Amino acid sequence: MGDRTEEDDPASTVLDLTSCQLHDLDSVEFPPGLVELDLTANRLSTLDHRIATLSNLRKLSLRQNLIDDAAAEAVPGWTSVAALEELVFRDNKLTKIPDASIFKKLLVFDVSFNEISSLHGLSKVTSTLKELYVSKNEVTKMEEIDHFSELQILELGSNRLRVMENLKNLTNLQELWLGRNRIKAVNLWGLKCIKKISLQSNRLTSMVGFEECTTLEELYLSHNGISKMEGLATLVNLRVLDVSSNKIQHVEDIQQLTRLEDLWLNDNQIETLDTIAKDVAGSRETLATIYIGNNPCAKSTTYIALLKEIFPNIQQIDSETFA
Q1: Which domain of life is it from (predicted)?
Q2: 51-65 pLDDT, tens per residue?
């Protein structure tokens, strides 16, 4: 066997300095062949100039530091690091999207948990991007995202969005996370690859708008103002449906769904379970979990026994689990 080289040694390609409470990197030696650099949970307020020389770097995490806009201004000059594929600025002190235009192969870009008020600047980010995270900021408008034709995950939860827009070109999108916003209506333009959608804690009063998303597997709509279950009959691949904490009075439009495994109906206004066997007929064999508590119908002492009888493979009803 030949001698091991520095490139064969994982220690020379991955440097994890998570939770070292570093204020700077002066005492740190960077292996020249570094591929991954994780600086999560430190006290960094500036970006060490030596990072810009790491030509093999593919993943850089600056999560949970003190990086502000001024410090991030160094990034466009990192020409030697242009092949970076993952850049994480999550949980810092940014008020705007950092200029990431230098990275032509970027796949993951995370600027969640900052104080960003606008998506202005995303138009400069390469269209190769597959995952974009901008949750827990102050964003008011979905903009400068329509060129992300390869995007698979879009996370914009916990912002100030009121309108769903500029999604029609995201033809490869599989996950859309928009929980904790101010959205009143669903506008999805029939995303053909979408598998997961979260619109929890918004201002929806209607479920209309999901009909063309036939690949959808998980749909989360809890904590809205929805009074009627509709637009679900075409979602034949749906496995998880969460409509808890709404104003629903009747279980409907899911009779034909044959793959449903988890159904969250708790905290609504459902008066009776007399027709539940018919209402969820298609999923009688597949349903494993159902939440029905905090509805008028759950005041009955026999509702758990009734549901166990109807759904032979049920594993959990509210907080009660079965072997």
Answers
A1: Eukaryota
A2: 999 999 999 999 999
